[in-house]
Amino acid sequence: MEADETLMVAVAAGDGAALAELCRRWEQPLFRLLARQTGGRDVDDLHQETWLRVVRAAGRFTRGRPFRPWLFQIAINCCRDWARRRRVDPLEQTAELQTEPAAGGTARIDAALDAERLLAALPPAQREAVVLRYYHDLPEDEVAEILDCPRGTVKSRLHQAIARLVSVVRGGGKAVPARGARV
Amino acid sequence: MIGCEDIDELRAFGRPLDAEAEAHVRACARCRELSPALGAVSAALAASSAPGVPAGLTARVMAAAGPLLAANAARATRWRLARALAAGLAPLPAILVLDFWLVRAGYDLLTRFLPDALSLYVVANWVGFLALLLGLTYGAIPFLAARQGPALHPRSA
Questions:
Q1: CATH classification of A90-183, choosing from 1.10.10.10, 2.40.30.10, 3.40.50.10150, 1.10.150.240?
Q2: Does B78 reach chain A within 8 Å, measured CB to CB?
């Protein structure tokens, strides 16, 4: 089986069979990444747009560079452009979640929550970090490469995201306590 | 040394805690207090089913990518041609100098045994033959570069 990077060189030379093979290999992870980033909206179109950008940029693909972070970086950029076009404001959804009554405690909220609503409560940058780190189980270094930021920023976004998720789970009424002393 | 936020991440993402982290949670009031909420976050994230991939996605991509792939192929062909021409033209001055030297040496040699006019005729034929060979060689470069094609690996489309 040829490596993704080899297939990309062939795509840069106009080889359709190489593109079809890459599509088949990466269809599921890419589709899931896009679906989680957009809450399941316009995923088919974004999936196609991502691959079209891959073909357009194939000539700039550097030999020796791993394919996955490159592909996911393009996908994340597609999602960002999509959000700008739609002017999606996840904060509106967050506000909606946070104004829900917290009566019944965590257990009751737990039953009502699902991952999609939780992710929608996060700002895009934090959601990207959570989706890549948790659902795709990527190492922090690779997440940092995809998001084009330092590793420390990824850690910081993850911590902020978790604090926000905890706040949402609690119904938004109680802030997460400040970080305690390191043990 | 593990901190509260690192442990929050492990618990929210449902990762196992090592002994040091477990000891931290037992000793830290903040981490104990957050346990139910982090458990709820972890459960909600884990309960998310993977979005189903609709059929025909790859076919749709391939249909839309046709013109872009054709543009890539044309660009790659131009690039191959440019490289082939550059590689072919680089030694051309040396070839011409060598040919000139051989033709001149040949003419000098021939004039020792043959009349000048006949020597000139023979050398002119030789020059014509060399020019024909050079023309055929350089004329074949674009043809061969185009025929080399993008298929680096045999694969059915």
A1: 1.10.10.10
A2: no
